Amino acid sequence: MGSRRRRSRRAYGIGVALLLSAALSAGCASDPAEPPPAGGGRPPGDGGGRRITLTVGVFGTFGLQEAGLYDTYMRLHPDIAVRQTSLTRNDVYYPQLLTHLTAGSGLADVQAVEVGNIAEVLATQADRLVDLGTVPGVDRRAFLPWKWAQGTGRDGRTLALGTDIGPQALCYRKDLFARAGLPTERGAVGRLWAGDWRAYLTAGLRYRERVPDGPAFTDSAAGVMAAVTASAPVRFYDARGALVVADNPAVREAWDLAAAFARHGLTARLQQFTPGWDQAFANGSFATVACPAWMLGYIQDKAGPAGRGRWDVAAAPRPGSWGGSFLVVPAAGRHRAEAARLAAWLTAPAQQARLFARRGSFPSASAAYPLPAVADARHPYFGDAPVGALFAAAARGVPRAPTGPKDALIAQTLADTGMLQIDQTGRDPDEAWRATMKTLDNALDR
User: Which domain holds residue 418?
Assistant: First the structure.
């Protein structure tokens, strides 16, 4: 969706980074076959022969319209018209969505929700949403179990259907690894740190020893912290919904490991999604970066033609996910049944594979992974890396971690109040931890 802020990449207005259709080859060169409408037959009109118009509210460059999915749906359903409304930033879109859900008015028939907000929506708005798990054509077995769980409330109703996800890898500069005498082939690079984020630190120390005055090993300590946290089975909330960020050993281990990167001078001391970070890609200022699937397009855009063939992709030490969204159907809508069928169709495996082929958004429906558009996808900019298979393997390994209503706020505070100061000013990690926990207590009214 600041330094490794856990917002959707769409919140940063980087839809251009998802234009991978020209870059993905093999299976992504052709779209999957269009399936019949979800649920079998064509949805009815309004009973009077008039065409029903369904609206879809999204934030940023969501990709559904750009991939032509609405046009296809209207061809399959001549008595349905689909219109999209969009706000550029999720931090503007989301408060309005909450206000409209509470009021029961001003809503689109289908609304997008970013993963960092989904737990709050389910906790506070469940009675204002349609149960999508019972819509004809929706099969929970087609989705990754952890993604399905994120859209399911405590009462067992599935109120949100997953669109995309952000399975993580590590992108690296082959030329800089060669300069440091490190492996450059992606399989060997992945074995450098397989299974252990501390081995990633060890690789960084080897790199710095051999390239003492060259580019940094990684972009930011906050980026490391967020990637490590994303691979933990428990993060900021436990399975009962209790806030555990201050007492969770996994969060503190991620903090300490990231601080070690800063302490050893392995980072470029950058803040992610700032102009300086963008320019650093073009300047070759660092050798590795935590890399969700959607960031491939971002790197290609910022590093430009000079980076082609220099960047590659390897498996991360442990799987995690950064980013992704859902579709919900407000119960206050006039055309709830038709809207639910549209949401089910848009999130079906074939449509998710097509969205990946045309826009680079990685599917949350694991049933899409065997389809050629995903399974055979390669990325020429990254040395013809088999990105479909690589990110599918990462997605299947993401732990089923509980989500909480303030995940996005907590992640942003950890990054910007705490880790950024350690990275850029050398603040003591223990002192920064205490200050960050106090800031969180105040922000969460604890």
Answer: 167-321+400-443
